[in-house]
Each structure stands twice: as structure tokens, then as C-alpha cells.
Amino acid sequence: YFLLFFSSRSGAKFIAPLGCLVSRQKHTLPDLAYDYGALEPHINAEIMQLHHSKHHATYVNNLNVTEDKYKEALAKGDVTTQVSLQPALKFNGGGHINHTIFWTNLSPNGGGEPKGELMEAIKRDFGSFANFKEKLTAVSVGVQGSGWGWLGYNKEQGRLQIAACANQDPLQGTTGLIPLLGIDVWEHAYYLQYKNVRPDYLKAIWNVINWENVSSRYATSKK
After folding, report:
1. Which residues neighbour 183 within 8 Å (Cβ) at sequence distance 6 or greater?
2. Where do the structural domains in the chain lie, given as residue ranges?
3. Is the pLDDT of residue 19 over 70?
4. What residue stretches are annotated with the Manganese/iron superoxide dismutase C-terminal domain (predicted)?
5. What is the pLDDT of residue 154?
6. Is 56 annotated in some ligand binding site?
7. Binding residue per annotation — 51?
8. Could you tell me which residues come within 8 angstroms of residue 111 by beta carbon, excluding any fewer than 6 positions away?
């Protein structure tokens, strides 16, 4: 925080920390554009309800708590505490960012294949849609433990790229790629329905991918 001063005959006087002039809005759990049961039979209602109202909500709550502690540490100039809060900020902030994208990447009217510029880019960078689908599925299946499979846009190189992130590491903040499509492979995303057979979940999720949303993200990322 920067301190704001004004000068007078008696010298400079303290007014207020500049940070106090800006009130931080709390992060909130985003609403879904569809009902919890709308993605059945591919992802059942119980999973969606727990995933959204419990898991994502926990990331949001913990992110707000962490940011409040960080704000206090900043005000005190307590660098040690700022550094110690980084893992919680990354985990909960990433969880909030990732899930906010994930819900919009899914739709009860999803599935099939993308059209237009996104499809052209997929063919250019992966050879075919089938090859892209196979590669993203393989990367997602191969995530050790918990994490995400991503289709991202490499703005510097002007091309699409597939990547995996561990835990809740956010794609752009850790790789620089702009997130277009994220596939959550934490067990809480599928275990109640698919048990430990992650490949079955990954086969099913392609039926509810919202290509309009992914295409819109691609168009925005190129600007």
C-alpha cells in the first residue's frame, strides 16, 4: 500500500493508506446456467450438486479468507506472512478460476464437434478433431493424482496447445496459456458415478462439452 500525503506549512501530514480507498469485493460462487441434473446421464446430479455447492464453494470461501489475511500482511509490511500465504492463494484462487471456467465449458446441449475458426485451428494444430480429442483425453487420463487437462491458446506462438496442471494450479497463471477448455480430473468430479475408472468419465464428458463457449473463449483470446 502507498501512503497518501499532503504538504502544509507544518510539514507533510498523513491522510490514509491508498489501499483503504479501494474496497475489495468478495469472491462469490457463480450460478450454473443449467440444473444439477441437466448433464445426466453423463454426469449425474449428485456429483454436480456436491462439486458446485460444496467443493467450489469451499475454494471461494477459503480464497476470501486468504485474501483478507494477505491484505493484513500487506498493511503491516509482513513479507514472511505474505510468502507463507502464497500456496493457499494459488490453491484456492486456482480452484475458483478453474471451476468458474469448467461450468461454462459444459452444457446439456453440448457434445459433437466445434465449428468455424476453432475447428480450423484444431485441424491446423492437431491434424484432426479426432486426434485432438485423443490427445487431450490421454493427457487428462495421465494426470497423476488430482489435476486438470486443458486446451489452451499460446498467444505468443498463435497456436492451440494441450497441457496438464496438477492440483488446482491455474493454467494461465502457471503456464501462460489462455484457458479455453478444462477437464477436471479430481476424483470429486467423477468418483460417485464412475468410481476409479477415470477413462470412462473422460469418454462421457465429450457428450456435454459446450463448443460455443470454447469457441467464444478462443475468439476472445486472439484479440
Report:
1. 102, 136, 140, 148, 149, 150, 202, 205
2. 42-222
3. no
4. 114-217
5. 98
6. no
7. yes
8. 206, 207, 208, 209
